[in-house]
Amino acid sequence: MSKKSVHKEFSKYSEQYNNYNIIQQLAAKALIRDVKNKAKNILELGCGSGQVYKNVTWNFDSYTALDFSASMCELHPKNDKTVVKCLNFDENAFFSYLDGKKYDLVLSSSSLQWSKNLKRIIEKLSCVTNELHAVLFTSNTFKHIQVISKKESPILSEENIKEAFSKYFSCEFETIQYKLEFSSKKDLFEYIKKSGVSGDTKLSFKEAKSLYKEYALNYLEFEVIYIKAFKK
Ligand SMILES: C[S@@+](CC[C@H](N)C(=O)[O-])C[C@H]1O[C@@H](n2cnc3c(N)ncnc32)[C@H](O)[C@@H]1O
After folding, report:
1. How much distance in Å is there from the Cα of 213 to the middle of ligand 1?
2. Is ligand 1 within 6 A of the CB of residue 24?
3. How many angstroms is it from 120 CA to the middle of ligand 1?
4. Res. 3 pLDDT band, cuts 50 70 90
5. Which numbered atom of ligand 1 lies nearest the CA of 72?
6. DSSP string of 77-134?
7. Rounded to the nearest whole angstrom, what is the distance from the C-alpha of residue 95 to the centroid of ligand 1?
8. Backbone angles phi, psi at 195, to 5 degrees
9. The pTM is what?
10. Do strands 41-45 and 131-137 pair parallel, antiparallel, or not at all (unpaired)?
11. Residue 2 pLDDT level (bands cut at 50, 70, 90)
12. Which of 31, 50, 113, 176 could form an S-S bond across to 155 if both were Cys, CB 3.0 to 4.6 Å?
């Protein structure tokens, strides 16, 4: 999976992103609802337009929000308590940025499933925080589409995700499946294109046409894993 094309997927539709991120909105809300630590210094990875930030209701001193998409960083709310940085969590600049930093809480919602080396990221996070709350889409998202198109999911599996987090933190995991219904096939396929979770599973025109024909469900499948991680 090329990171560049994932980046494009998010940036291209960033203007209308708020209409096609129902599951991400739900996930961000549920993620924050379960945080008991009213942390003062917060770091968020893959902040997008600020869905997680908007759900944090307690008073904090500083909120550092990172995203590799400049157009997403542009959309993120800004004030004297926020630091919004355009950084790629797969690149060395991100790891250097975190050198010597400490946060009371690290958050990430609907973003880390794209990481190229999740273990490396989690290892680094274990040096900067004692507590990490994250939600990631798993490779069971759009399962039926993968079955029909015979293409593997470009995102991480539940097993890989659990393994990476458990190596450095004591974790509680909860995996949830969501089904999103559509009144027309056209809307369903439009949602996939614009949701920012389809990545770069490229189909030829012929493949796309036959997928459209064969897809008999009136819903899309999403699977997310919620993780509460505490330093071992
Ligand atoms: C589905 S959106 C979620 C945004 C936000 N956290 C939310 O809950 O609405 C995923 C975000 O992760 C960002 N992202 C994906 N890969 C990234 C990477 N390698 N480094 C930094 N950000 C990344 C995208 O630009 C996008 O803003």
Report:
1. 31
2. yes
3. 17
4. very low
5. 27
6. ---TTEEEEE--TTSHHHHHHHTT--BSEEEEES-GGG-S-HHHHHHHHHHHBSEEEE
7. 17
8. -75, -20
9. 0.91
10. unpaired
11. very low
12. 113
